[in-house]
Every structure is written in structure tokens, then in C-alpha cells.
Amino acid sequence: MTTLLPNVLMVDDDVSIHHAVELQLRRRANLTCCKTAEAGLTAVKSQPFDVALVDMNLGTEASGAALISRLRELDGDLAAIVFTAHADYRTAVESLSAHAFDFIPKTLGDDREFMVKLERAIAHTREQRARTRSEQEAKRLRSALADAVVNNELELTSSDIQRGLLNESLHSFSALLGRVELLNVQLEKYQAKPLYNLGGLAKLSRETVAELHEHVGKLRDYFMQPERMVSSVNELISYVLRVMHDDYPELTAGKRIESIELKPDQRFTGEGRALFRAVVILLRLVLKSAPAGVGVTLKPALLLNPAGELQVLKARPYAFILNTPDFRKDDRTALAIEISGPGAELDVKQVAALFSASDLLLEGGPPWSAVAMIAKLNGALVVESKAGMICYRIIVRIV
Questions:
Q1: In the β-sheet with 319-322, what is the strand arrangement from edge to edge?
Q2: Are residues 173 and 111 in the same domain?
Q3: Is the model's pTM score more than 0.70?
Q4: Fewer CB within 10 Å of terminal CB in the chain, N or C?
């Protein structure tokens, strides 16, 4: 297995030094020589290097320390070695201040020291690059996993889709499967008899494709329906109430859901399905623990200082904030949807812990999926538990 030679960048305005280093590195490394700082920066932009040798004194154009700082801005993993004719205490201090990896005297009197320091710097750069790639890949995978969780949850907008749409689709797609099987049989016959009439086969194929397109369109309409319907806050609340009564009769039997309209109504331009999904999950959790005859409240409100409101909530001992967003001081309008009712005899941290238990699956979606929905909206979920009452508050920006 062949090992790639390291790429070495040298920035020095003395051409004779270029030749001396080139002799040292012959067959050991690929050397790129630059006489100016600007040329060195251009070289780093065009290809990756394993180490940079930088002269501390580049004449009137720039200092070596300044160049090393600029190199680090372009490539934070690149180890830079100060290449100097004055290997003294002052040089060492300047090298450290420039975040140089090491410094080497220009005399090149000790070939072994030169190569040892160079190899250490090369190993450091390659190790840093591997670590950076690992961190980037881990970040990409975390992001992909989060997106997969959110997208999966959004496809389960309500159980009426699961029961109604999938039941209807089962019959439709079973019929289509029969047509496809018939097409397959006829194609097999055609292979055996080249003169077989293709007219009927082509007609059956066109009909099947058209029907498939129709049913895929229906599926798409069903899954997009909540997003289309949610165009304002009051419309969202109305849709949530209808879904709760239609889909969860066992939870709403003998219980009241008291809702309050937002006045004046506000348009919601964010991800309507995500907000709808989060409200349904949290409302279901409150209804599950509420005794018969007791009301549960669903109340929207506008916050004119969301950043300040979150600071107040953080100071409350009976409040816990999940997925805190970075509300800016100039964010003057946010939507708060409060869902409250009698709660289990748990303190606020025990209630919050339900949202991290991945194995706690409830019909209609696990609690942690509500956090995934709110994270998609870059909002905050506040849990409050006090005197036997539970309150969930979703806070999101109104764009």
C-alpha cells in the first residue's frame, strides 16, 4: 500500500532557503514555495497542506505571526511552524502568540531535528483533520436523525389518517396489485408468443398508471391537509378540538376542553403540521390524567417580550424549560399556547423526564415527539407542575 507524501507549504522571501528546504525534503514531501504572504494564502485556498513553514520576517509586506493567524482562519487544522533565523526567547514568545505549532532555526544544521519537528506537525494536522471530519460526520448524522424523527412524526398527523385513509388505500392498492399481476402474466405470454396483440396490454397499463397517480395524489392531499388548514391561530385550535373529539373519544368522554379564542386572530406562517402535532400530543397527555367531569384548558396568547418571559419562567422552581430557543431581544411577538389541567402527583422534573423516555409509547405519539415538533419550529416547551395541576406552554415566534 502506497503512502501519500505530505504536502508542505513554505512562505519565505529568500529563494536560497527555498532551494535548501527542497533538498531536505526531496522524495519525502511535496513542497510548494511562496515568496509572499498573499501567495501563501492563495495556495492554502487552492489545496490542503499538512504543514506550513512560515518565515517570521517577510519584509515590509507582513509579519509571519500575522500570516499564521490568517492561515488558521482559512484552515483551523493546519499546523504552522515558524521558520526563523533568530531562534531566541522572543521568537518563541511570538510563535506562541501566533498559535504556531513549533519553530525551527533556518540554519538547517541539524537535519534530524528539522525532520522530527516537521513529522510531528504533519501528524498533528492529519489527526486534527480526522477529528474534524468525525465531528462533522457526527453532526450530519445527528441532524439527519432529528429530521427523520420529525418527518416520521409529521406523517402521523392524526389517527383518522391511519384508520380511514389506510383502510381505503388497502382496497384500492389491492385492486391495483391485481392489475399489475395481470400485466405480468400477459407480458410472460408475450415473451412466449412474439406476435401477441399489444393493444389490450397497453390500454391496461395506461389505466393502471393513471389510477396509481390518482391514489398517490389522494395520499398527498391527506397528509398535507392539516398544513393547508392551519392558516391562523384560531383555525389551528378549532382543528385540534375537532381531531381530539373525533379520534380520541375514550379520552374526551365526560371531560370538557375549554378553549379560548385569540383576539384578534393571528396568521401563523410557520410549519402548521408541526404545531398541530405538538398541541395534540400535549393535550392528550393532560386529558389522560384528568378525572371525569373536570375541564382542561386550551388557551392561546400573544407574548410581547418572549425573551423576558422565558427568563421569568427559568426563575420559577416549579417550571422546567425543554428546548429553549434563542429568542432575540428584538423579538417582540411570540405565540404562547397553554394546555393545562389536573396532573399526576409528580414534581416538575419527573414530568419533564417523561419527554426523554424513548420507550414510553402512547397511542397517537410518544411525549418526546412533541419536543421534536417544537424543535422544528425553533420554539420552547415549558412544563409547570404545581399543587396537582399540570401546564404545558408552547412558545413559538410569529413570523
A1: 256-259, 295-303, 334-342, 389-397, 380-386, 319-322
A2: no
A3: no
A4: N
